[in-house]
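Posting for a labmate who doesn't have an account.
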Amino acid sequence: MRALPTLRASVVVHRTRRRRALRRRVLWTGGELLVTVGLALLLLVVHEVWWTDREARQGAEREVEALEREWGTAPTTGTAPSAGTAATAGAAATGRADTGGAGDGSGAPAASEMRRRGGGPQDEGFRQLSPARSQAYAVLVVPRLHLRVPVAEGVDKAEVLNKGYVGHYPGTQQPGQAGNFAVAGHRNTHGEPFRYLNRLRVKDVVQVETGAAVYTYAVDQVLPETSARDSGVVRPVPRSVVKPAYGYGDPGYYLTLTTCTPEYTSRYRLVVWGKLLSMRPR
């Protein structure tokens, strides 16, 4: 009869050990799950930041090569503009483009001067562009950024921007037309063509190549930050409705480049504007 207390003590100790073992298993299983989730998130980040970026960049490069083969041309620019081009761009940025005395103050040649050079936006030498939705139809060249990227119609993420392309805002003008040729591109991931858009400076050269012509613009203004809803920046005469000190008041031949800012966010927009300097048929 005296052995009963010892038996009860053994049962209590056994139950305590089982509870401790169960807690250890729960903690161990929870730790394994946390590690697994952490690794999955890490792989997702690597996929989004590195793999999709690599794939999109390579796909964009192949598209540029395909367009050049279609046009029967080779790349037209190196990593920096020539001295003559840079000098002319500087003149255009101050409203004094070398157009033989014929200009409209926007940096674009007058119609008579364009005809003398071999065509104008409405002439056969500069055929009007009417690309299909998501179709790549031009190449944007930014020598300062060592950038050559396809331009496709529309700003759909899946069909255009996530492929590493630059997207043309529907409703804005096409290259070389009077008004505003406006495009958008990713700043981070998916090829990130506009990663270093903030490095552009006034008088930098930006070219838009199509199968019919090459259009050269000179950077004229940079808006470091504005609202993502600032629709004024892509109007025919672009002017920020959030920061009206930035933009223009007169019709002209404009280029607008937009991307997200700060990096790795989509809260605000960075905007770069340029004016048309010259256009030449291929």
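Reply:
Got it, the structure tokens are right above this. Residues 47-281 form a domain with the Sortase; Chain: A; fold (CATH 2.40.260.10).
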